[in-house]
Design brief:
alpha/beta; Gyrase A, domain 2; Rossmann fold; Isoleucyl-tRNA Synthetase, Domain 1; 3 domains; four-stranded parallel sheet; 21 helices; 53% helix; flat; binds arginine
Length: 580
């Protein structure tokens, strides 16, 4: 909560006969800053006291004991509006950022609480498709956000590392081995195996049985099947980790507990369901009846006695609670699985787990490609036909494009010499940031023009603004000071920036509350736009001038903006280049 809201509420509370917290809830930001920085509407008091709100506002304004952080409190129609004292505003925002950069915007609101964030969770044994970037980046941003808010965060990558796909791969692998023994396996040859299996299965109806037989061997613990499974899994995880490193995503070792890990924990879960009398037979299968909640039954055991996705998710939810005693457990998974998670959480509730209510499906929309982004192939194309767009290829293409963009705009040797590294940061940043350009439940429509637009609402635009601030500070060469002569900075545009900086911690709080990293992205875009407007208005405004004292105040403000951008970009998983 912004410091001045608290202050305004404390000042008003005794006069209006409400608690400080209640007054805080009612405070609003006036539509124009000329009208004040924070306002209190008097409608409710008017109702209670049966007198017009404007009169009450005037009366309150007269009786207020104004703290020095405000220069004025005045009645504006039915509101009483407070005006912040500019030096105090600067000191509490930019000054605070410079005094303690590591904690700027952060909070310990979540201290003592644990959140489990499950994200990415791809089905493995094939390269990562581009659509996986959604869960991966949203989840990683949420993990960092909760950490910045003081929570203990447990990151989980619930790999889809079990299922008939593995049987299919084994069939293709054995066939290929018969032709060329001792072939090495990597994630691309796995894809070839996968494609080979599906091509041959179309011709040969027996292949599906063969694949099922191999999967059965795997389930029964056959050593050769297990050996192959381990090779396939290890290769996939290594390939994943190479890709995650490019995205600034890092799961701890024990975070990789996928579906396979829960295979031998299923009996306990089924036992719990049975003990609660929740299992019913339906067409040979064992199910939990969810009819009363308007949902289809949750299948636990198929008619052949095999467990399924939902069974493993129940076991894994129990495990997560036992292991982490979480206060919140988030599942960052696409909208399409909404029903699955409603069934899952309801079943956990029926099992008597009070913590079922702490589980939440953090859902998101699709990543759609504009025409021509990747030829005719769509991101949702099928892997089987070899038509899926791989994330790695998208990142490579983005880096290539970023390289051209940077080379074209490079104005210093410093930039020209580091084009390679910059292109990686900017290209990946462009793709990553597109994940945050909409509220997460909406679909994202991706085009290169939008993603790489240096002047539009893009990741590269934020990175460019950060680089611009950094270069300016380097040119100045001084050390920005928390105790800068703030009184030398004036004007409505400057004031707007300080007010924007004052919002930062509230924005992070809101993003946590709504599990919505896009709020951070929007904020950074607004802050950047404010700064860039001022920076390019060279006639009326100069950050660097002959007036050394004034310049030092400007540079302190610039550094505070830079720190905010760097912190926000880091939360979202983007690099903050020093020059561009
Ligand atoms: N592996 C699944 C898929 O790719 C997503 C897993 C989501 N998480 C979960 N706990 N069910 O569709």
């Amino acid at each position: 909560m912004t410091w001045y809201r608290i202050l305004a509420a404390e000042t008003l509370a005794p006069l209006v006969g409400k608690s400080v917290a209640a007054v805080q809830e009612e405070l609003v930001r006036p539509p124009k800053s000329e009208m004040g920085d924070i306002g209190f509407p008097c409608f409710q008091l008017a109702k209670e006291r049966k007198s017009p709100p404007a009169g009450i506002a005037r009366e309150l304004a007269e009786r207020l004991a104004l703290p020095p952080a405000f220069t004025q409190a005045k009645a504006v129609g039915p509101y009483i509006n407070f005006f912040l004292e500019p030096v105090r505003l600067a000191a509490e925002t930019a000054g605070a950022a410079l005094a303690d950069p590591a904690h700027w915007g952060k909070s310990n609101a979540g201290a003592g609480k644990t959140v489990v964030v499950e994200y990415s969770s791809p089905n493995i044994a094939k390269p990562l498709g581009v659509h996986h970037i959604r869960s991966t980046m949203l989840g990683a941003a949420l993990a960092r956000l909760y950490r910045a808010r003081g929570w203990k965060v447990e990151e989980i990558n619930y790999l889809g590392d079990w299922g008939t796909t593995f049987g299919q791969l084994m069939v293709a692998y054995k066939r290929k081995e018969a032709e060329t023994p001792d072939q090495p396996v990597d994630v691309h040859s796995l894809l070839q195996l996968y494609l080979r299996y599906h091509a041959e299965a179309e011709e040969d109806g027996n292949l599906a049985d063969e694949a099922r037989a191999w999967f059965k061997r795997l389930e029964d613990g056959d050593p050769e099947a297990k050996r192959l499974w381990s090779i396939f899994r290890d290769e996939s995880v290594q390939a994943l980790q190479r890709l995650y490193a490019r995205l600034n995503v890092h799961f701890p070792e024990e975070g990789y507990r996928g579906e396979a890990f829960f295979n031998n924990r299923m009996d306990a879960t089924i036992g719990h369901l049975r003990a609660k009398g929740l299992l019913w037979e339906s067409e040979g299968a064992q199910v939990v009846d969810l009819d009363a909640w308007g949902m289809p039954p949750c299948i636990i055991l198929k008619s052949d006695g095999a467990t399924i996705y939902a069974t493993r998710d129940l076991a894994s939810a129990e495990y997560r609670h036992q292991t982490y005693r979480f206060d919140k457990s988030l599942y960052v998974v696409a909208n399409q699985q909404e029903l699955h998670f409603r069934q899952l959480f309801k079943t956990l509730e029926l099992m008597g787990y009070e913590w079922a209510g702490k589980c939440e499906h953090v859902k998101f929309g699709m990543l759609a490609f504009g025409p021509g982004v990747f030829g005719e192939s769509a991101a949702t194309g099928s892997t089987r036909k070899g038509r899926v767009v791989f994330l790695e290829d998208v990142l490579d293409r983005a880096v290539e494009k970023a390289q051209a963009l940077i080379a074209e705009n490079a104005r210093t040797d410093e930039v020209r010499m580091s084009v390679g590294r910059l292109a990686e940061q900017v290209g990946v940043g462009a793709v990553v940031f597109s994940e945050f350009t909409q509220r997460r439940t909406k679909d994202v429509s991706f085009t290169w023009e939008k993603a790489l637009n240096l002047h539009g609402d893009s990741g590269p635009y934020l990175q460019y603004t950060h680089a611009r601030l950094s270069s300016m500070l380097r040119r100045w060469g001084g050390v920005p000071n928390a105790g800068a002569p703030w009184e030398l900075l004036a004007g409505p545009a400057i004031r707007e920036i300080f007010l924007k900086l004052a919002e930062y911690d509230d924005v992070l709080a809101g993003a946590e509350k709504e599990n919505e990293p896009s709020l951070v992205a929007t904020y950074l875009l607004e802050l950047s736009a404010q700064f860039n407007r001022l920076y390019t208005d060279k006639e009326n405004h100069r950050f660097l001038s002959a007036d050394e004292l004034k310049t030092s105040a400007h540079m302190a403000l610039a550094e505070a903006i830079r720190l905010t951008l760097a912190g926000g970009l880091e939360l979202l998983g983007l690099a903050a280049p020093e020059a561009m």
